[in-house]
Amino acid sequence: MQIILTHEHTDFDALASLFGAHLLNEKFIPVLPRQLNRNLRTFLTLYGHEFPFIEQRDLSGAKIDEVLLVDTQSLVTIKGMGKKTRVRVLDHHPLRDDLPDDWNLRIEIIGATATLLTEDLVASDKHLSVIQATLLLLGIYEDTGSLSYAGTMPRDIRAAAWLLEQGADLNIANKFLNTPLSPEQRKIYDELCANAVTHEINGHQIVIACGDARDSGEEISSLAHKLRDLLDPDALFIFVKTSSGHLI
Question: CB within 8 A of 112, min separation 6: which ones?
Fold first, then answer.
């Protein structure tokens, strides 16, 4: 069995990458993580029937021969994996220096992993439905601040343009990119804003913020996006204490 995995607290870039990787090789099964961001849960409630995602509990338990890891370089072991399971990585984050030597890596520093997969879909002459194109666009938009973050590349813009040509719906995208914070998230966000400290290092503005989310089960990544939009630093680090440990 061959599967596609991504990180917990899944954002739209990770979800879009699961789907895009499956489109390029339909033998690979896209497996949803256990913890999804709130806006993703709503998206899948409305449109999940159009995608081939399955949950970990629905895997057959058969031997897993290969894992394609997208939008992350952290592998969570699940039933069926073993020492002989091959691992491939497709990611847009900086390369970690502690990865096993036998992993097959494709790391490109770009705005979103969904951009890399969209480029591959273009090269493969794939055609998408409106909601499929919208999911991939959401992946690019969420990780690039709708193409406004400093890390956005011309490749991200070209990929987004192709998805719009495929019929991606900006009205749907905007609804899921601008979801309001829950009361629990608002409390944590206000604490992060109040505790944020800016350091200037070699001419770069680095913001560090701390918060406490031990009484909350809500995801944190959307708070990081909103804080980055508010403060516009060169780099942002948030340290949040959760019930399961510290999340950076």
Answer: 13, 16, 92, 139, 140, 142, 143, 144, 156
Q: Which residues contact 230 (CB under 8 A, 6 or more apart)?
A: 193
Burial of 56 (0-12, 13-18, 19+ CB in 10 A): middle
Q: What angle do CA 17, 18, 21 make, to 5 degrees?
A: 75
Helices (H) and strands (E) in the chain, counts: 8, 10
In a 10 Å sphere around its CB, with 0-12 CB exposed, 13-18 middle and 19+ buried, how is residue 181 labelled?
Answer: middle
Please check whether residues 143 and 215 belong to one and the same domain. Answer: no
Question: Which residue range(s) make up the domain with 97?
Answer: 2-177
Looking at 120, 155, 177, the residue that finishes a domain is 177
Give tens-digit pLDDT for 151-198: 899 999 999 999 999 999 999 999 998 776 778 888 888 888 888 899
The total domain count for the chain is 2
Let me know whether 7 and 103 are in one domain: yes
Q: Write the CATH number for 103.
A: 3.90.1640.10
**Any bridge partners for residue 207, and if so which?**
198, 236
Alpha helix locations (H) across the chain? 12-24, 38-47, 113-123, 130-144, 154-165, 170-177, 183-195, 221-231
